Amino acid sequence: MVSARKRNWILALLFLGWALGNLDRYIMNYAVLSITEDLNLSASSTGLLLSSFFAGYALMQLPGGWLADRFGARKVLITSVIMWSIFTGLTGAAWSMVSMIVIRFLFGIGEGGFQPASSKIISQAFPKEKRAGAMSIMLSSGGIVALIIPVLSVTLLTTIGWRTTFVIIGFVGAIIAALYWYFIKLPNSNETLSAQNSQGVQKGSFKMLFKTPLMLNLFIAYFTLYAVNWGLATWLPTYLVDVRGLDLVSLGWLQTIPGVAQLLGMFLSGYVIDKLAKGREKIAGAFACVFISILLYLMFTASNVTSFIIYQTVIMLIISFVVILLPAVVLKNLPSSVAGSGMGLVNTGGQLAGFITPLAIGFIVDAFNGSFNAAFWMLIVFAFICAVSLLTINYEKGELLTKKNEEASAS
After folding, report:
1. pLDDT above 70 covers what percent of the chain?
2. By CB count within 10 A, which of 211, 318, 354, 371 is most buried?
3. 370: left (phi over 0), alpha (psi -120 to 50) or beta
4. What are phi and psi of 164, to 5 degrees?
5. Quick check: pTM over 0.85?
6. Per the UniProt record, which residue ranges are transmembrane (predicted)?
7. Where on the phi/psi map is residue 94: left (φ > 0), alpha (ψ -120 to 50), or beta?
8. Buried b (16+ CB within 10 A) or exposed e, 146-178
9. Contact predicate 47/361, CB 8 Å
10. How many structural domains comprise the chain?
11. CATH number for the domain including 89?
12. Strands (E), 57-181
């Protein structure tokens, strides 16, 4: 059993790594304004650039989870951080659209193993009743980054430029990889559990994942929720500048307001979800997604920027709740031996959305002569589908998977 002190130290390091990963992803949404100008990109090309990271990230989710289960989460975690640090630094050296797309795709491959590996580490180090809280703390780093990134991006991009910014982020990643290698060391029984089970328990459980209805529902929920999340994150800066007429500095300061809401939501959600009785979380998540769809309509039809920001703020607060709820459902309903694979499987849906949505929005904006209305309607539909997928979750096969794993371990 991992001591409380060691659990907290591991969680702090995972928080730090997740913050850096989010920093790179979010800063690209602001840097792309300068990159588009430097590389002379159309809206469709910009969408392809924003999506290229998610193509690699989605492709690596399931293999990353399997590798974490098979060879140990610590090894996958460190390898992931090393790879993404290299390609983040290389982003600053890109000389054309093609080189940028290739580099960002490989960056996505590198980072793809991080979430499955970190989720598995949480499932190994924390008891079930504390996993949602631990996950909310780790993922709250995204809220902190969303809070500071608008102002930080404007400061960095207008002083040292986008190329130097990415080189510095890559260097910081190398330092974090060294910290992981030195400090994250789970007990041998935990670190080698997946390797020992790979020929027995883990192998059978991995196959059963694909036959579990719970996984299909969560895959759809991940896809649709992150379609909304990354659709807004990648294109709102461009929308607010081109359509609502904000300058870059005003954009930076105004976007800190939704950032505060997202951070607050991340911290509170884990506590609330851990207190919900089994079955209640899917109802709460479904209602949350319905509210998101309504607020998205009110946001894009808002008559002024102030109303737009207010609606966006509430949306980010609610999205953060569902972002925490989805992995909590995974970690509470799957055995630790396949937690990495399960997380990788469902998160593939989320990262496919990250690839498809920015690209689709770029083509939609070009097709409608600069109008974002059709893109917002697409996001509204996605939020409603997420509500349906959560409401129809069936826990029965997930319980069977856990029971089978326990019986095989006992034997």
Report:
1. 90
2. 354
3. left
4. -65, -35
5. no
6. 41-59, 71-87, 135-160, 166-184, 214-233, 253-273, 285-303, 309-331, 352-368, 374-395
7. beta
8. bbbbbebbbebbeeeebeebbbebbebbeebbe
9. yes
10. 1
11. 1.20.1250.20
12. none
